[in-house]
Design brief:
about 270 residues, alpha+beta, ten-stranded mixed sheet, 6 helices, 10 strands, about 30% strand, globular, isomerase, TruA/RsuA/RluB/E/F_N
C-alpha cells in the first residue's frame, strides 16, 4: 500500500480520537512519513503507539505540510485499538512526554465517532505566511519568516490579493508536481496586514493546491515591492501557467493556523 493509500485507509473496530497539534517544522521532512528522515507523522504515530504497548496507531491529517512548514492548529485523528483504556488527558500528556525533545506538541484530544475524519470532515483550512520586512536579517525569528529587505507596500499587496478572492483556476499558482484533479479553488479570505516589521498574509479556503499559498506569497511580494503592477495579477491568473507567477516563497514563513469542522470535537472538551 502506498503512503497516499494508507492516508485514506479507514480501519474498522478502532477507537478514534481527534487531536489538535502544533509543531515547528524546521528540520523535519514535513507531515508525511518518508523512507528516510524524520517526519511529523512518524513522530506522532510512534508516541501514540507507546501508550498502547507499542501496538500500531495509524493517523490521518487534515493537511500534509511540506518540509520546513509549521502548524499552530493542525488537526489529525488517531485510531487506537478498540480495547485501549485511554482518555484525552492521557493522550495529551502521555504523547507530550514521548514526543520530547521534538518540537511537536499535542494541544488537546477529543473522542470522535468512526465516521469522523480529520481530512474529509474538514470544511476549511487557514494559513498564515509571515514576511520579516527590514534590512537586518532575522535573529529571534530565524526559520519562522521570509526575510525581505526591500520595503513592501501592503496596500498594493492587498489590491493584488483581491483579484484572487472567490473561485478561480489557480494553475499559475500550483506546483508542477501537484496531484489535485482540478486546479479550481475558492479563496474565502486573503488579507495582508503589517504589524511593525512583519507583513502577514492570511488566507482561508476549503482546500488549497500544492504550494498554492507559497506561490501566492511570492507573487504578492513582487507587487508589494513595486516590481510588478497590481494589474499583473489578472494576467497571471488568465495565463494558467506556473511560469507566469512569482517565485515559490520559502517554507519557513508558512504556518497552518486552523482547521474548521461543522461539528468541532474540541468544543466539547
Amino acid at each position: 500500500m502506498s503512503d497516499a493509500q494508507a492516508q485514506d485507509h479507514e480501519p474498522s473496530g478502532l477507537n478514534r480520537w481527534a487531536l489538535r497539534i502544533e509543531y515547528d517544522g524546521t528540520g523535519y521532512l514535513g507531515w508525511q512519513k518518508q523512507t528516510d528522515g524524520t517526519s511529523i507523522q512518524s513522530l506522532i504515530e510512534a508516541a501514540a503507539s507507546k501508550l498502547v504497548r507499542n501496538r500500531p496507531v495509524p493517523s490521518i491529517t487534515a493537511g500534509r505540510t511540506d518540509a520546513g512548514v509549521h502548524a499552530a492548529g493542525m488537526v489529525i485523528h488517531l485510531d487506537f485499538p478498540d480495547d485501549a483504556q485511554i482518555d484525552g488527558r492521557q493522550i495529551r500528556d502521555g504523547m507530550g512526554y514521548h514526543l520530547k525533545p521534538h518540537r511537536v506538541v499535542v494541544l488537546e484530544a477529543a473522542q470522535v465517532g468512526p465516521e469522523w475524519n480529520a481530512r474529509f470532515s474538514a470544511t476549511w483550512r487557514s494559513y498564515r505566511y509571515t514576511i520579516l520586512n527590514r534590512p537586518a536579517r532575522p535573529g529571534l525569528m530565524e526559520n519562522r519568516v521570509w526575510h525581505i529587505k526591500r520595503p513592501l507596500d501592503v496596500d498594493l499587496m492587498q489590491q493584488g490579493a483581491n483579484h484572487l478572492l472567490g473561485p478561480h483556476d489557480f494553475t499559475s499558482f500550483r506546483a508542477v508536481a501537484c496531484q489535485a484533479r482540478s486546479p479550481v479553488r475558492t479563496l474565502d479570505i486573503l488579507t495582508i496586514r503589517r504589524e511593525g516589521e512583519l507583513v502577514m498574509i492570511d488566507t482561508k479556503a476549503r482546500s488549497f493546491l500544492h504550494h498554492q499559498v507559497r506561490n501566492m506569497a511570492g507573487t504578492l511580494m513582487m507587487i508589494g515591492a513595486g516590481l510588478w503592477p497590481v494589474e499583473k495579477m489578472i494576467e497571471i491568473l488568465e495565463a494558467k501557467d506556473r511560469c507566469a507567477a512569482g517565485q515559490t516563497a520559502p517554507p519557513e514563513g508558512l504556518c497552518l493556523m486552523d482547521v474548521g469542522y461543522p461539528d468541532n470535537p474540541f468544543i466539547r472538551t
